[in-house]
Amino acid sequence: MQKIYKIAILALIILGSIHCIFTPFIFKSLNADALWFFGTGLSYIFMGLYNLASIKVNIKSIFIIAVVLNFIATLFTIAITYILREPQAYVAMVLIIFIFIYSLTKVLGSLNK
User: Fold this and answer.
1) How many Cα atoms are found within 13 Å in the side-chain-facing hemisphere of 48?
2) 97: Cβ–Cβ under 8 A, 6 or more apart, which residues?
3) Model confidence pLDDT, tens digit, residues 1-22
4) Is the Cα torsion angle 49, 46, 37, 101 positive or negative in sign?
5) Residue 106 · residue 63 · CB < 8 Å
6) What is the number of structural domains in the chain?
7) Secondary structure of the chain: what % helix, strand, coil (to 5)?
8) Which residue range(s) make up the domain with 13?
């Protein structure tokens, strides 16, 4: 399961990178919509990197922060998916919900030990 978690994190980083790379192709001028689009891609990249870091350092408090970050990202992505109803939003939602649930179960499992 840990391997699937890492694959989901890497897929989220790739999705965020694609999001950022395609910003100038989708938006012909620099405006608020373009910045929000680019910022969403950055947030997916940073979220993925933070989750990877939390695995590497194996510090419980860092992982708890990752769970909080994942929860906030889950709410945000569900809202985006509800509003946009586009394929990439559904992909991001599935990835982020999986990452959140896995990280939550890992933290809850470590609290029981």
Assistant:
1) 21
2) 74, 77
3) 789 999 999 999 999 999 999 9
4) positive
5) yes
6) 1
7) 90, 0, 10
8) 2-111
16 dihedral zone (left: phi>0; alpha: psi -120 to 50; beta): alpha
* DSSP classification of residue 59: -
pLDDT digit string, tens, across residues 40-62: 999 999 999 999 999 888 788 89
Closest CA to 76 of 36, 30, 104, 108: 36
Is the whole model's pTM more than 0.85, yes or no? yes
Measured N-to-C along each axis, helices 32-57 and 87-111 cross at an angle, to the nearest 10 degrees, of: 30
Number of other residues whose CB lies within 10 A of the CB of residue 37: 16
List the structure tokens of 68.
């909080």
Q: Please choose, from the candidates 1, 113, 89, 2, the residue with its C-alpha nearest in 3D space to the C-alpha of residue 54.
A: 2
User: In this structure, are residues 103 and 67 in contact, taking their beta carbons and an 8 Å threshold?
Assistant: yes
